[in-house]
User: Fold this.
Amino acid sequence: MNANPTHTTRPRHRRLVVVGAVAAGLSIACAGGAMAVAPQSAVSQGVVSALQTVGIEWEGMPEGYTPEQYTAFWDAGYTYGDAQHLAELWDVDLTEAKARAGQLVVDGQTLPITPATYPDAGSDPLSVAIDALWAAGYTFEDVQELSALWSTDDFETKARAGQVLLDGQTLPVEPSGTATSGS
Assistant:
């Protein structure tokens, strides 16, 4: 047996450092993923604020895609499937399609499609459920209220709430946005 007490604590210390580094890396990756999916969400805004606190300027939006365009596109009731269709129609990438479409909405112009016309590619049940939630007029703030009520994260809440709507049931929170014609 080794009488040296540091012999057993040193590997434990190294393990804790490694676990901490992995956890920090995963946290950063998840925060980046959240920002890519919902750049205007509270989580994304918190990450941007934290980055700015340490001197890193990051808007949280892809270059050429403003928060106003983002908000206008989604608030008008367009779906991810609509964005995919516009990207194909205009022969641009998805981000540029959402930016262009959002700017058209901001400018009060008409897009070549109506909101919620195209389901997501593949129409997987999760996307259909989430699209149903947005089409019913629910906003991110409504999702946060439901998350608090159900003790679920926002992603699970969106999926669950959308499925409740698809099943013809009502949610315990009224939508604060405007329902689109597809709902």
Observations:
- Residues 6 and 12 are 10 Å apart (CA to CA).
- Residues 5-53 form one domain.
